[in-house]
Amino acid sequence: MTRPAIAVTGLGMITPAGHDTAATWEGVCAGRSLARTVPELRGSTVDFACTVDGIDLDDAVGGRSAFRMGRYVKLALLAAREAVADAGLSPATWDGTRVAVVVGTSSGGAVGLADQAVRLDRRGPEATSPHAVLLTIPNMPAAEIAIEMRATGPSMAPCTACSSGVTALSVARDLLAAGQCDIAVAGATEAIVVPVVMTGFGRSGAAARADGDPALLSRPFAADRAGLVMGEGAAIMVLEREADARSRGARPRALIAGAGATTDAHHPTSPHPSGAIAEAAVRAALRDAGWQAADVEHVNAHGTSTPLNDATEAALISRVYPHGPPVTAPKGVLGHCMGAAGAIEAGLTVLTLQHGVVPPIANLDAPAPEFDINCVTKLPLTHSVERAISHSFGFGGHNAVLALRRA
Predict the structure, then answer these.
(1) Rounded to two decimals, what is the model's pTM?
(2) pLDDT tens track for 74-94
(3) N or C end of the chain: smaller count of CB under 10 Å?
């Protein structure tokens, strides 16, 4: 049975670079890190991050339901609204029984959980919110989007750590291909910039150590890379079967051509040193798309700025794509948005396909001498791209890869 082509017809983003897709794209193409010292993290092992600023999320969400939503839910809902509007769709007119919602997250409502724990400790049970559970559980972004958008089809909340966004998009694609829905609102969200989480990342050794300007600390694939910088945000796509989209006059932004997933089954945080299992996910996505590796004209890398992850991924890239397609790594600008990262980076890959521009990697003059990869540095690269790959590799060894094609 031939799998139907799946189109990206809508895209919504809210990230440290901006409150919508256009602002995010502009910020990523500028190639400057958005990390800053965060006053609320004072006293934490890690007191800097890339955060979504300059917006009152309660006011932006509006209505009387915002009080029951965690920060991660609000970010997802705002991105979903933009994506649905971008697709030219309206919940007021669609058949909600044929609409799926698939929104991943890595940690759910860490902000809400931390806040409620402090309230309980300092002021006792009466100070905790009756909505404490709703502020923390990871399915609430999908649930709240479905409630607002009258979507009564399948609703799911994948959690594969840093790969959650790509996993969500892959699951949504499969639901469409299987005929279980006609429209899928899919992506991921994350907001975990709170002292307990940041201290945990610092204690684990994964986070960069404060050393001067925070904006210089995330430097994917650099010889002196020294750890990740945390980010937050959300990206949501509207997916439809291409034939359905075109029949209603929609113009797809891009097509999801293939997907692949594997699990290292090696270590909770470290990738398999050979990179072979992650490579298998890449090759699975290529097979699913019907491509040869030489067909790939751009790689949006996971690029965490950590010593081991970048080394493993760089070796993988040089093995799989010896022809040297241009590589970018948005975490240099946006930080590592954890569960949302894969969805944000897939969205940026869609924009590269549309605009023929590959954003530069922040804080990188040239990749480490031992890395034989073609990193885009300093300025955006004008480069017509027909086929691109987006890598996403998560804690626990979750590897998820998307193959995306220009529409």
Answers:
(1) 0.96
(2) 999 999 999 999 999 999 999
(3) N
